[in-house]
């Protein structure tokens, strides 16, 4: 059965509520498979979808309903479509042959297979003692490559194989067994230079051991060359019949086009090296080791390099150009990205005059990185092995590149102003003994992962700036675009002296002054940088880049790393030629996949543009009531910063925000200062501040262990793990007791009372901090020094702030996972289960953050009492624990949710806990299409406003920098982030649509270009001219077909994208516009490289 299932995604105009996500099912039929009613497949989805075209294709007797109510399988035909089957549960019949086919084969059929296979070692049941062609008696020969394993006499065998000289034949020996022989041994000769069946009067025999390398092995053949007057040379005679000679002088062997094609695609796709391929050809000849096999490995490897090179030249059209291969310009043979802007090809001729609102679409977005797995060993014959196409493809012209590199060997290493990057630290320390290269650097387009022409080259010693400068500038040498975005994992350092460094490079690489470069850092690498780099180098806050992440090189390296072993042992020229070939193949696969990848990007962009517009609109409307003037200020500030990053960044929070880490650091600094002054307590090695920090750390461990015990199912393994954790925790508590006794002697009587109860588990031990309930205000000041009380107050405040930040983070994660789950649930029950597990884990972390905050606030309330601070660190109610764009379920929604969960088989206690708010108030996402009234759009929960303690205490404000401005700053940051998400999603929608247009336009241009090549090259024979013309017209036809196929497939979704974009531009009527859009069905392959998307949320 075909494993690549197809499904239909409906681009709807209304959104589905989160609480419905587990109650509905979608059924589908895999195209090309015959599925009976008993074999109906069911997968979970978040919306019922009717796929009418597939319904029409099914047999009426076996048809089933697509919009079936919730049950284990769809309703059987005898039930009415609108009836609720209740608890009807139909179990599909199972078949062992389909569930475990190999098990049945093993038990019932393998003996039969073995005997039938052994039968082929003899002459077989169909042999009647006569020649299968002329009926002569006692035939003794058969061919293993011809159909039917039929027996022939010698004459018929030679006649049949006159044009099949590379088949394997066997001879029946003395009525006992088949013995291998060859057509050459049977006197078959191959005449070259004439049509089939015509002998040459002036023939000359080839080498007596002429070897042909074919896909089925190595063959000795008898070859006769034509020596008639005017006949072509021997190389041409061999190539006329599809044999590639291994020598251009006196060829004694050749490789067939078939074996070269097979190896080429196998090497590119499966990364099988030439040595392994040749070994397999040898094994096909003889696996016993008894025969002498000709050694043509070196010839085969030479021919493979020639084949790669000629194929690259052929596909780039150099055979049609009058100057031929010699006239190839740098990078001309590279497969370029047709979705990126190319001047004169796929962008308007007047693009340079485009206004600012359109000019950003003509930005080239690149990314580069180094790969140190691609080492290259120095080989003795490197000087005698130049590349066949130096600089023709994706690699640079290494001769010029290496000559220039020598001049920069002594360039000084720059000092890092950010974190200590490995790329800079190892630039001059990489081990290079015995190596010609320690790795490679490469430049690719960031949005489509296609390697740039002349953008890949060797690194001589680490990731030096000269190498990366050269590769980057070489990749854009022929680009005339005004705006370029370049992503690099150490861009913050690389850019510092970039413009001064390039002045030392050759003039053809020096960049024009009018070009604007923007430097960015890939999303995955950015967290390793300093805080000051975040906003400035983040793609998410950069205009005109859409949803790109800059991590394209990492995905490209995952393919190229497989080649590292074989490439490292190649000579210099062979390595660069092979690298070029693989780069072009990688680019071509990405080009072919544009059909699906761009379609899925557009579907995702349509969805996200609406989702993030809703989120920003809801946030903006909620804030606009009380913060209208601030919003206008924020808007002006963020626009100004986007134009000039040197201005104050609206995404930065004040450094005075209270966090646990900062508070611990400050307390540690106080302890150090006391130690220097000699005023620190000598009662214990651990300071008083350290004692409080340790106690609160143990408190977190107690809370974690309690949650572990509560969720444990009582298995032996779980109980063992719990006991181990209790032992570790008890030891830590005892050490804490020693420190407490030393610093607070008055507490010893309480310690003796608490520790005397041996029935209490370690996770329930009271830690006897100043905020414990057993100490009232008067007793607390008697037992504990003021230093300990003050330290706990500061730490509890920081703990509460950290818990709120963690709670906000987990709520964002819950929203993302819920949306992701709605897209993914249709795949399988296993996928649904994994997402459900992930949701449960996030819910548990939300509860943990809630409990930590409540504990911190409760303890802080005991220590400080009521005050201004309680207006910031408020009491946390269940209805407060919701996302920015979530609201509490209405009563009727709770009833629907309960019914859906019961139908889905959920546990009743869990359902009650969800609806009763045990896990937090039950929420659903806000829907602009439904929740349009003010009552349905509640104010944002206060937890999104607070990032640090707001206090009127001047001493605390002076010490911690806490102020009311921090709340405004936190609101500003959240507002700017929501705006950035909406802007990037809208840009992504515009960019993907533009990339589709460019790709189609490139196909049109390329088709015309191939037509224009016809007749350019005049120095050819008539039959060569016919081949040149045929190839050019064929390529033009294929480009036209590709462009037409992309147009037909993309057109409906492109139209929907334009409608959505237009609706979002009309902000006043956006909701009405979106709700008026009709359903759109899009056919997608779920098993493609890019994850599927669902546009039902529009």
Explain the layout of strands and helices.
Elements: E1 6-11, E2 24-27, E3 42-45, H1 52-57, H2 96-99, H3 101-108, H4 110-119, E4 141-143, E5 151-152, H5 154-160, E6 169-173, E7 177-181, E8 189-191, E9 203-205, E10 210-214, E11 217-226, H6 234-240, E12 243-245, E13 253-256, H7 257-270, H8 274-285, H9 297-315, H10 356-359, E14 363-371, E15 376-377, H11 398-406, H12 422-425, E16 435-437, E17 439-445, E18 451-459, H13 465-475, E19 483-487, H14 491-494, H15 498-501, E20 516-520, H16 531-537, H17 552-560, H18 564-568, H19 572-592, H20 594-643, H21 660-677, H22 688-711, H23 716-743, H24 748-755, H25 777-783, H26 786-824, H27 829-864, E21 886-888, H28 891-903, H29 908-915, E22 923-925, H30 954-960, H31 965-1013, H32 1022-1065, H33 1070-1075, E23 1080-1085
Parallel strand pairs: 8-11, 10-13, 14-19, 19-20
Antiparallel strand pairs: 1-23, 2-3, 4-5, 4-6, 6-7, 9-11, 10-11, 12-13, 14-17, 15-16, 17-18, 21-22
Helix pairs in contact: 9-19, 20-31, 20-32, 21-22, 21-26, 22-23, 22-26, 26-27, 28-29, 31-32
